[in-house]
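Please, does this match?
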Amino acid sequence: MEGRVAERLRGALGPLGFEVHAFKVGWYNAILQPGFHLPYPDDTLAFVVLSTPSMFDKALKPFVNKERLKIIRDPVDQCVSHHLSHVKEKFPDQKVDVIFDYEILPSRKPKFLAQTAAHVAGAAYYYQRKDVKLDPWEKKKIYGVCIHPKYGGWFAIRGLLLFPDIQVPFLEQSAPVDCVSTEEKRIELLELFNFHWQDGRYRDIIEVKERYSEEQKAYFATPPAERFQLLRLTQEAQ
């Protein structure tokens, strides 16, 4: 069952520059505090959705062109929301729940921990402080970061698709690719991400197959409120 669902999702989202990776809710809940658990049985089928560098040209620009007058929030959030909600139509006989990366609970906690989901689904390795044996940071707060084996840090985790009526007790877990495997590189990655994240060097911690275009970098470096204007200008320039 998981294979058929995955195939249909990849057929719908792949050409738009998205990746989907399956996991069981239980894998995710097993490593988190109860306050962060997803409220589904352990064997429930779920997918984490990532955007790759090509999403900008394949999904975002066409969406902004078409929906120009309807965009009221951040164009990326609206574009992702449009396409993931659209996917539900591919499953008329199934209940599909969508949780977006920007959604929060009344307690102000995120509705799901994106990097944990990507790690348990085998999509990208979540490097954390505990992955470094000789920790050089003492009392400093150090945040972890996911690295994709193909895109390094040039990707984003956009949401979850959950299928409450599909139970997959026999789904096998695939481990994420440990592509930053030396102690030195892991320290360098966490240093760059925590103390120099603005310059984006952490994204190139490994050799990447594809990265954001200059136009896309400029777009994401622009404050969200001004992004729509930027896209309009680049279209007019073309």
About this structure: DSSP finds eight helices and six strands in the chain. Residues 224-237 form the longest helix (14 residues).
